[in-house]
Structures are given as structure tokens and as C-alpha cells.
């Protein structure tokens, strides 16, 4: 059985400006801002939450099933997925639209200017989870078009498929009522610490109340690991040791890929989160969301060095 991954597919274009933005953007001239940056370094990565999560899950030996929308420029990404052995049968190509794209310019102080074009992501509601429900054991609803996110949440609940609500960058789009509705329908909720605070502020609920409504809440804490709130208990998961701190882009998605693998295997949430921690540590040592690799033995060895025993 597979894990259905509902979320964005995107191209990430990352450029490096070999200076500091502050030397070229004058505060007193912001009302007539007109600047141009020469960026000698540029790379284009395969990204998007669904793509990154699927990559991590496949690396572990799981079977990801992506449900997403892409534009007429989807061919290179679809070929990439085919090479990885990841099914594309539930990826819909939207004519007259571009695949979602992020254009990120970073300066030497690690400040970033990002422009994001949602493109085909806005049509994610054209996919119906009922078309894949017979193939899946678990699912995740990650950032996507708002209408699509809400539709997938309700579709999975109606099909009786346990799923992870992973609002991420899509959280600001959702009203307090919509967030609470998703919490009531999901089996698990995953957010980072900033998103957890935002969710509390938006809904007026405490962390404990959010966990109670979701069933299980997992909050990632960057270099401090992650924390599970479930059944009135709190479980701290340490951060696995990374060999290098190259790029945090996609670490949260790698974490979620590990989490899904554990759930697919029938593991409890604590063991699943431990594997998730290992996947995040492996990813952060590489630039981009899908440019890392590791054998199952490598993953098991890092897991054992952190938690005392191998996961398989």
C-alpha cells in the first residue's frame, strides 16, 4: 500500500548575490525602489512540498503516490520522478499554466528575497482523493491551493483514510474555523514551532487543545529536535547529528517523509518521529530539497547512533 501525498510541486530557482542587499537598497528610497542584482551563481532545483516528501519516502523504500497539479512545463519534473520510480498517475497537468515556481535571491548575509508564483497549484481542487483511496494506507495534506487543501481533507475523512494535516506555508490562507475543521478531521498534525504559535494565535487554542483536537501533534524545533503531544503526554525527540549544515530547505519535508514511512509500517508516532529526525539531519547536509541520497544501511546507522538501536 502507498502513502498519498497531496501538496505542491514546484521549481526552485536559487540565485546568490555576491554582496549585501543593504548596500544597494536605501531605506529613504524605498518608495521608489528600482534595483537590479547581478547573480553569478544560480541553480534550479526540483521542489515543492509534495515532491520533497515523496523523495524522502522513496529513499526509505516506501511507496509515495503524489496528488498534485503542474503546468505545461512539467516534463522535466515528470521525467525526474519517473527516473526515481515515483508514480505520476495522480499528477494533473493544467494547460495554459506554469508549474508553481519560487525565485529566491540570497545575499552574503543569508538574507533572502523571494518571489513565488503559484501557477497550477491554484487548480489542485481538480484532483479528487477518492480516485486514489483504494490504493493508500495513510496520507498527508501539505501546502497547496486553499480550495484543494480543504477538499482533500474532507475527501480523506470521508474515505476513512488516516491522514496528516500539514498546513505549513498554507496556514495564513486558512481561517480559524477552517483550521479547527481540519484538526477535527485529521489523525495527526505537523507544524514547525513558528507555525504552532501562529495556529494558537489564529484559533485561540493552546498547544494542548490543538493536540487534543488533532489526536497527535508533532512540532519540529529545528536544531532542538521535535516534540510530540499525544494523549495528554509530551515526548521530546532529539535532533540527529548532521555531518554538515549546508541548507535547511526541504528539511521539514524530509522529516515528514520519515514520519510517513513509519506510519506506513505501523510504527507508533515516537518511533516514526525518530526516523523523521534522522531524515532531516541527512537532508540538511545537502543543498536543495532533493539532492541528497543515503542507503537504508546509512540511515539505520545514523538512527542507531542517535537512539541506541537500528530501526530495522
Approximately how much helix is present in the residues? 25-40%
**Strand order in the largest sheet:** 5-4-1-8-9-10-11-12-13
What kind of sheet is the major sheet?
A: 9 strands, mixed
Distance between the termini: 19 Å
Order of helices and strands: EEEHEHEEEEHEHEHHEEEHHH
* DSSP strand tally: 13
Average pLDDT, to the nearest integer? Answer: 96
Shape: globular
CATH class: Alpha Beta
Which structural class best describes the helix and strand composition?
A: alpha/beta
CATH homologous superfamily grouping: Ribokinase
| Rg over alpha carbons | 19 Å
Instruction: Quickly count the helices.
Output: 9
The low-pLDDT segments are: none
CATH fold description:
UDP-N-acetylmuramoyl-L-alanine:D-glutamate ligase
Question: What CATH architecture do you see?
Answer: 3-Layer(aba) Sandwich
| Overall domain count | 1
* Portion in strands: 15-25%
Describe this structure in words.
The protein has 312 residues and is of the alpha/beta class. The chain has a single domain (2-18, 41-304), classed as Ribokinase (UDP-N-acetylmuramoyl-L-alanine:D-glutamate ligase). It has 9 helices and 13 strands. It has helices at residues 49-59, 75-84, 146-159, 176-185, 193-203, 207-214, 251-264, 269-284, 296-307; strands at residues 2-6, 10-16, 41-47, 64-70, 91-93, 100-106, 112-117, 136-141, 163-165, 188-192, 216-220, 226-230, 233-237. The strands form 2 sheets. A 9-stranded mixed sheet has the order 5-4-1-8-9-10-11-12-13, sandwiched between helices. The mean pLDDT is 96.
Amino acid at each position: 500500500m502507498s502513502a498519498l501525498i497531496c501538496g505542491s510541486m514546484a521549481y526552485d530557482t536559487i540565485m546568490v548575490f555576491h554582496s549585501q542587499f543593504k548596500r544597494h537598497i536605501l531605506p529613504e528610497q524605498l518608495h521608489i525602489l528600482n534595483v537590479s542584482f547581478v547573480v553569478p551563481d544560480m541553480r534550479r532545483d526540483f521542489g515543492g512540498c509534495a515532491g520533497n516528501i515523496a523523495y524522502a519516502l522513496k529513499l526509505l523504500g516506501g511507496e509515495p503516490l503524489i496528488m498534485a497539479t503542474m503546468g505545461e512545463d512539467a516534463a522535466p519534473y515528470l521525467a525526474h520522478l519517473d527516473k526515481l520510480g515515483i508514480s505520476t498517475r495522480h499528477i494533473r497537468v493544467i494547460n495554459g499554466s506554469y508549474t508553481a515556481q519560487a525565485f529566491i535571491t540570497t545575499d552574503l548575509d543569508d538574507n533572502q528575497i523571494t518571489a513565488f508564483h503559484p501557477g497550477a497549484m491554484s487548480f489542485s481542487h481538480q484532483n479528487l482523493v477518492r480516485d486514489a483511496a483504494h490504493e493508500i494506507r495513510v496520507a498527508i495534506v501539505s501546502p497547496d491551493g486553499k480550495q484543494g487543501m480543504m477538499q482533500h481533507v474532507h475527501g480523506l475523512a470521508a474515505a476513512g483514510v488516516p491522514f496528516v494535516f500539514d498546513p505549513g506555508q498554507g496556514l495564513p490562507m486558512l481561517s480559524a474555523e477552517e483550521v479547527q475543521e481540519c484538526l477535527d478531521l485529521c489523525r495527526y498534525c505537523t507544524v514547525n514551532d513558528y507555525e504552532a504559535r501562529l495556529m494558537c494565535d489564529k484559533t485561540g487554542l493552546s498547544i494542548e487543545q490543538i493536540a487534543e483536537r488533532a489526536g497527535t501533534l508533532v512540532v519540529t524545533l529545528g536544531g532542538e529536535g521535535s516534540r510530540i503531544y499525544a494523549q495528554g503526554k509530551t515526548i521530546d525527540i532529539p535532533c540527529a547529528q548532521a555531518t554538515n549544515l549546508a541548507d535547511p530547505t526541504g528539511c521539514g519535508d524530509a522529516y515528514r517523509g520519515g514520519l510517513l514511512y513509519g506510519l506506513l509500517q505501523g510504527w507508533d508516532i515516537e518511533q516514526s518521529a525518530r526516523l523523521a529526525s534522522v531524515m532531516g539531519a541527512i537532508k540538511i547536509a545537502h543543498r536543495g530539497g532533493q539532492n541528497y541520497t543515503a542507503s537504508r544501511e546509512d540511515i539505520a546507522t545514523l538512527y542507531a547512533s542517535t537512539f541506541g538501536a537500528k530501526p530495522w
